[in-house]
């Protein structure tokens, strides 16, 4: 009987413990659910992407250009392109707007190129030949990029400006920059040289002129232009960097030049030196009678006069 009671006691205790544990687990689960329900879900749209506001239709080219500059300065390049396009539609002769449009297009094209390279599978890159300076004798280049088309429009507009006013140094400067963007380096150098001529104390003109001279491998002239730029503004860091490049290029050229040997006429002739062709006795001029036999004329002996006294 005692054994039966003990067994019943332990059985009841086990049942009570199981029931309490189950209730504890259920309570914890309920508390967890309540806590989850009370915790706010993170709002994934709390920082939505700012939608680009479409630009209004401008009625004035200068206003559109000014808006384009503001957008360009805050890296909203695509919207800047739209503003510059409105400016040149309103004023097709707006040279500066064409130039800034070309710069904006060039930035977008460069970004697209980088993205395409990152997405493309890794391959051995094919080396591209370096661009050569174009001259008027070269065949005309077909422009396919939007940036190049804009720079061509800028060149045409700036050429009209300098044709009307050949004292406009800023127009010559910007014309040179536009030519440079198109890799028409010789024309760029001419325009920049004219800008420097009109305003030689402008460090910006001297610096840009020095840069294009380096591109043309005219290092001596580049060194002079860049030193002049630093004389005007000693804090011109761009001119200082370009001057180092110009001086390095100058050293490379001078290193590759073979000095001319001294002229032979100024050197003392050694006793053992072989005679040159002109000094060879075979090539020396011979007297006219050399080689001809000399005719020997018979000498007449004087006849003895007879002594008249002896004959008598």
Would you write up a description of this structure?
The protein is mostly helical. The protein has a domain at 56-118 and 143-164: Serine Threonine Protein Phosphatase 5, Tetratricopeptide repeat. It is 60% helix and 0% strand. Helix 2 (61-73) packs antiparallel against helix 3 (77-90), helix 4 (95-119) packs antiparallel against helix 5 and helix 9 (219-232) packs antiparallel against helix 10 (237-256).
Structure in a nutshell:
The chain is mostly helical and 312 residues long.
End-to-end C-alpha gap: 224 Å
Radius of gyration: 48 Å
How many strands appear in the DSSP assignment?
A: 0
What is the helix tally? Answer: 11
SSE pattern: HHHHHHHHHHH
- Strand residue content: under 5%
Indicate the structural class: mainly alpha
Query: Can you identify the CATH superfamily of the domain at 56-118 and 143-164?
Result: Tetratricopeptide repeat domain
By CATH reckoning, the class of the domain at 56-118 and 143-164 would read: Mainly Alpha
Overall, the morphology is globular
Helices, strands, pairings?
Layout: H1 2-38, H2 61-73, H3 77-90, H4 95-119, H5 146-164, H6 169-181, H7 185-198, H8 203-215, H9 219-232, H10 237-256, H11 308-311
Helix pairs in contact: 2-3, 3-4, 4-5, 5-6, 6-7, 7-8, 8-9, 8-10, 9-10
For this entry, give a set of tags.
Serine Threonine Protein Phosphatase 5, Tetratricopeptide repeat, mainly alpha
């Amino acid at each position: 009987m005692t054994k039966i009671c003990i067994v019943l006691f332990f059985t009841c205790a086990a049942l009570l413990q199981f029931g309490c544990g189950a209730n504890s687990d259920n309570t914890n689960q309920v508390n967890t659910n309540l806590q989850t329900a009370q915790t706010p879900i993170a709002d994934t749209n709390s920082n939505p992407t700012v939608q680009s506001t479409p630009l209004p239709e401008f009625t004035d080219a200068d206003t559109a250009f000014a808006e384009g500059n503001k957008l360009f300065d805050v890296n909203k390049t695509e919207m800047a392109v739209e503003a510059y396009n409105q400016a040149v539609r309103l004023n097709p002769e707006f040279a500066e707007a064409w130039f800034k449009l070309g710069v904006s297009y060039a930035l977008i094209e460069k970004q697209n190129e980088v993205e395409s390279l990152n997405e493309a599978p890794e391959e051995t890159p094919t080396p591209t030949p370096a661009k050569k300076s174009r001259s008027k004798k070269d065949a005309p280049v077909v422009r396919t990029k939007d940036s190049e088309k804009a720079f061509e429009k800028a060149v045409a507009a700036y050429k009209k400006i300098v044709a009307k006013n050949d004292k406009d140094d800023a127009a010559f400067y910007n014309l040179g920059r536009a030519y440079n963007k198109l890799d028409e380096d010789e024309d760029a150098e001419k325009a920049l040289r004219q800008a420097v001529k009109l305003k030689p104390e402008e460090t910006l003109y001297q610096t840009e002129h020095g840069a294009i001279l380096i591109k043309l491998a005219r290092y001596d002239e580049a060194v002079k232009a860049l030193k002049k730029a630093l004389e005007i503004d000693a804090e011109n860091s761009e001119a200082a960097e370009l001057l180092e490049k110009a001086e390095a290029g100058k050293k490379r050229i001078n290193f590759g030049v073979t000095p001319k040997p001294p002229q032979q006429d100024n050197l003392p002739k050694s006793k053992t030196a072989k005679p040159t062709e002109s000094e060879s006795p075979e090539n020396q001029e011979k007297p006219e009678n050399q080689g001809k036999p000399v005719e020997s004329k018979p000498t007449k002996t004087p006849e003895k006069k007879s002594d008249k006294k002896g004959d008598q």
